[in-house]
Queue: 4 jobs
Job 1
Amino acid sequence: MAEIHLIGRAASPGLAIGPVTMLTAAVVRRAASDDPAQEAAALRAAIEGARAEIAEQIKTIQGEVADILEFQVAMLEDDALADAAYEVISEGITAHHAWRLALDVEIAGYRAAEDEYFRARAADIVDIRDRVLAHLSGVDTVARITGGSIVAADDITPSAFLAADWSHGGAIALAGGSPSSHVAMLARARGAPMVVGLGPLSWNGQPPALALVDGDAGSVIFDPEPETRRLFEQRMAAANAALAAAESARLAPAYTADGRRIAVLLNIAAPEDLAGLDPAICDGIGLVRTEFLFETSLGLPDEDTQYAVYRRILDWAQGRPVTIRTLDAGGDKPIKGLTIDGESNPFLGLRGIRLSLARPEVFRVQLRALSRAAVHGVLKVMLPMIAVPGEFDRAGVMLDAEFAALRAEGTACARPPLGIMIEVPAAALCAEDFDAAFYSIGSNDLTQYTMAAARDIGSVADLNDAGHPAVLTLIARTVEAARKLDVEVSLCGDAAADTRLTKALLATGLTSLSVAPVAVARLKAAIAKVGS
Ligand code: PEP
Ligand code: MG
């Protein structure tokens, strides 16, 4: 059989080889009754069963994964999701059929959405559909993925991903999918290589037995010839040896080959991301995305809740600097009850600092919690999506006021230094005009605004290139301004973890990069090669 080469999009880095597991969800139907009342009751019980099952799972996990499951619980708690199903049940359709019909309409709606964020959520709705069907049928439909196998499927649900053990290798090869889906985020966090958008996985006759997945290049080879396999295994062995060497050097500070000390900081989305990590792996925390606090079904977080979370992070850092970003809602991060629905272009709308300034009653709570946490370590506060100095100044006045109010009340507090993210080309070009204590370059947004190529639209992914000379020039421009004004500058966008760009980024004069914990070893190894 000739080997099959497929090219897709890289969604999670790394190389993997393994037997192919084709994912198909087999659902066995329960014996349905012809009584609509009984069918409606069965569906209600199945929805509740699925909801309770997920709620139990949430108790055992944390961070990003828990957020994903929270989303599913919120969907299942929303009565509107099942309304259409109950309606057709009352017309005599079985619970199983009605639920599938209703959810398939939902899924089609998500898949057809213009926004890739919503398209990527389709896999969650498939997950919800199959979980409830499993409860209706009394059958566990979550596919069993054996450790180390290459999962080939149209798409994969978060449940199916989480049910598998990725600690012994394995990878994912999808006909569809998206690099910004929840599963892609999970794959990156667990270190499982993943390629999406391979197109139809159709075979003449037998499905493939073995596959090679290149999560760096975004390609998959099914049923490789012996020579192809040998060369791939050679590459894998070299990459694994390099990674093992890098892992062992993870706790050491990073230096370039020519002796330049580079600070490596962490990006985290929640304190749980730090569980089990030795603070010695980093020089501090460069970005805490606080959106997770606002994305729960419990409503906006109060001051004490926020303070407790910020304090936990500062305690972990043991005196290392911690940069916490104020809420960056809007754009690709809608938050129910806070962000504006129906903006024609949310990335150019009321997001980040613009939203915080428009909702001072919400922003002030966060500024108070941050000022209280600031007594427990070296806290820096960073404002997202700053475009003009007026925004920075207004936020500074509000921070001063909250700090003064806390002091007047006799509450322990400190006024943290206030810095800005450089994500808007206007801010990069006029960085000197801000009275900021530090800059942190958000290359994800800076790239999309410079290249006019949205970060979540797959069809313009090639243009969304942080290595483009225009983006690198804006980064260099910002570093130059920081040097002139003697303020610190770091880069915390995804470009920091893209080791193909390490040399170019350090050539701009940057000496501080902030990445997710899983990317630290790889980045330190790449830094060590610069200047050799
Ligand atoms: C960025 O834009 O590079 C950044 C770090 O912020 P986020 O990805 O959260 O928008
Ligand atoms: Mg950003």
Job 2
Amino acid sequence: MKLRKAKFSRSKAMELAPEFVDPIAVPRHVAIIMDGNGRWARARGLPRIAGHKQGAEAVRSTVRACSDLGISYLTIYAFSSENWKRPATEVDDLMGLLRLYIRRELVSLRGEGVRIQFIGDRSRLDIEINRLISESEENTKDNRGLIFTVALNYGGRQEILEAARVFAQNVRDGKLNPEDMNEQLFESYLQSNDMPDPDLLIRTSGEQRLSNFLLWQSAYTEFLFTSTLWPDFKREHLEQAVYEYQRRERRYGGSGN
Ligand code: IPE
Ligand code: IPE
Ligand code: MG
């Protein structure tokens, strides 16, 4: 796949973040575990929904910042398969916010050339959300800018199990043989099959775990953990993360330089 060139010149990059030195070597795919909304609200004596609302603002600005930096893919973890364990009121609040976000953002994302898509199990999401998801995917499918993927009711293990199930079915139907299986074929069964693996995965709020996000895809991803809470995450945090990423040496099992 072709690497999109950063939109800004070197001098513009320096202006954005003095230490951000290489606008060409930006990660192609950034994944984010947006965590800490609840703690952000609690620290202010506010209900958790207030943190989620502010978190939605951080999503807006991060999408724009990724486009400006010339990142090709942004994937965010919005709701995990395990988040249904939360109180029904919080789940309802999150779904309500999601509906609001899609309705409000769709027009601008469309105008900005962003292509939005969703991964995760849609069967448990309500009809209205399913409709909004399909509509936003359809309305932005020809956009050629940032590919913005929202992981909703997503679980890495569930995604892998589903891939195994469909492959087994294909074998049973006589379409494939067990020995046909290899990494490339397996990836074709994953929902992320049209994206490269994430180069950089950022998790906010100080937690250092994957929480069932992109398990297969993050085999060689660079992880960056920051104590910043998601609602406080700004363009400069993203730039800082990209800067740090550019200082890492990716070895993929080789001996390095
Ligand atoms: C992340 O913030 C948002 C979602 C998981 C939907 P949290 O709601 O997990 O915030 P904390 O971890 O309780 O602070
Ligand atoms: C991971 O955050 C899921 C999302 C950000 C959507 P959680 O807050 O749910 O993760 P745990 O429970 O702390 O591992
Ligand atoms: Mg959390």
Job 3
Amino acid sequence: MSVHKEVKRITTHILQEMKQRGEKIAMLTAYDYSMATIVDAAGIDVILVGDSASNVMAGHETTLPITLDQMIYHASSVVRAIKRALVVVDLPFGSYQGNSKEALASAIRIMKESGAHAVKIEGGLEIAESVSRILTAGIPVMGHLGLTPQSIYKFGTYTVRAKEEAEARKLVEDALKLQELGCFSIVLEKIPATLAKKVSDQLTIPTIGIGAGQHCDGQVLVIHDMLGLNKGFRPRFLRQYASLYDVMNDAIQGYISDVKAKDFPSEKEQY
Ligand code: KIV
């Protein structure tokens, strides 16, 4: 008799239930098949195919250059790897700001061509019409407030957002609006922990924080950062769980010296 292990897939409804019972949501980014296989098998709840791919995969300084086609390529590679996690994909800069029709067309392309389960979109009231239109098509939407990296040239820096009263008030209004429209969750990036707590307490949908403190309903990190693949990027909010840059560097240097010393391949490693 074969024992078939059923894997219960994470859905937006399950995330909602997790918030209700106070169970934290763990989310990480992934951009390719091999990494997503490991992240999913480890038991992550949500995989974000973030436009941070523009930085960590393509080496751009900002998230602005990545295209919709490139996001779809990354997302489809991730979707082929996963058995359990919910896969959320960023709508990249320039794919939704024009008008809500364009936003819907971009979201549909992501869902159709990658097989992902939801999209994420940066902004509040300004993009309400787009969020609404995407939701009307049955596509789950995750919001993103606080530090929104696609607006880096408006902000001028990557420092903490909404420290001032007026910006904090707008953020709360935006969060409530996104919930009212039907978003299933909201990422809160780099805002004071007290503000993130206020928003998380007011909302019935889960908040996912990055640099937003311990009161969010879940946390997200960029996988390259938490695995220590990026040497030198150590913001205060980042907990680094491994130093893979060093591990890989040692392995590669070992390989180089074995090849140079004619130690690899040995007789046992040839045909
Ligand atoms: O693109 C990304 O990785 C993100 C996270 C930082 C939330 O949006």
Job 4
Amino acid sequence: MSNKKGKLIVISAPSGAGKSSLIKAIINNNSNIELSISATTRMPREGEGNAKDYFFISDEEFNELKLKDEFVECALVHNYQYGTLKSYINERIDMGINVILDIDVQGFEQIQNANINNTSVFIIPPSIEELRNRLNIRGLDSQDVIETRLENAIHELKYANDFDFRILNDAFDDALKSLVSIIFDDDCKDIDTKKSTKILQELLS
Ligand code: 5GP
């Protein structure tokens, strides 16, 4: 086994920006990279499994883990608690496995404040309308939940410039190419920063 440690890659995006599909594609098409499984107090959606998508736990269990300082970061997101487990990621990074954290902007800020070495990427949706469409088509959430997620999206976009990289997800294959480049190429040659900067400015104005 090599002594080289794995990288920690933080990926954030508003709900519906296509983050999960991009992460799934990266993990399925590459070796030596895994998605960290977080703990959450939200209920499993249809098709989700415990220890597969999340560790689904109660508020009491979550608070106990928090008290024991078992989280690298944790946050209240869309009214539920979510947290990254120290043991889960440290074990893999020590084994040389690259680990992706799919976390919200509050979690990212905590990781930055704790000076934990990471590469961070923010996925930008093409428009708020497109986000609404995607959340509706996905059909996983009620209208109330979708509205909360859209309000949060506008807030989250304000943090995009704190990340090392921004990727515009208007075309899946291009976004995937950029993400692969960020994670696996040292010179990140495949990133179109101009387009993402322009759309981000429009979304924030
Ligand atoms: P969902 O409920 O749709 O699976 O996730 C909702 C949001 O919670 C997503 O933006 C996701 O990135 C974020 N999230 C998932 N796990 C964690 C975590 O461990 N920590 C933080 N801070 N956010 C998380």
